[in-house]
Design goal:
The chain is an alpha+beta fold. It has 3 helices and 6 strands. The protein has a single domain, classed as Alpha-Beta Complex (Outer Surface Protein A, domain 3), CATH 3.90.930.
């Protein structure tokens, strides 16, 4: 299991090297090679995954989502952090601090 780290708006995240992903039309299928974990994301999850292909701060992800979707900022932040925690727990993203 990936080391548990707190994810904050200042954390820097990127898709892990040990994964494969494929665009399947309305969804993206993600296979974590470490744990043979399969994820399928659609909608805003797909948008987040696309953004995760480039190393960036969580605050940048949040800003991009708030620009793209009509959603309450607190709800968006909570949902984003929750998804990032799950992706990290499955070894699908890497987390760092600073840039």
């Amino acid at each position: 299991m990936a080391e548990t780290r707190e994810i904050t708006l200042d954390s820097v995240v990127v898709a892990a090297r040990d994964q494969l992903s494929s665009d399947l039309g309305d969804e993206v299928a993600i296979l974590g090679l470490q744990k043979s974990t399969y994820y399928s994301v659609t909608g805003s999850g797909r948008a987040i995954w696309e953004l995760l292909q480039t190393r960036r701060r969580v605050s940048e992800l949040l800003d991009a989502l708030l620009t793209r979707y009509t959603v309450d900022a607190d709800r968006c932040r909570a949902d984003l952090l929750g998804l990032l925690r799950r992706l990290h727990d499955e070894g699908l993203i890497e987390i760092g601090e600073g840039v």
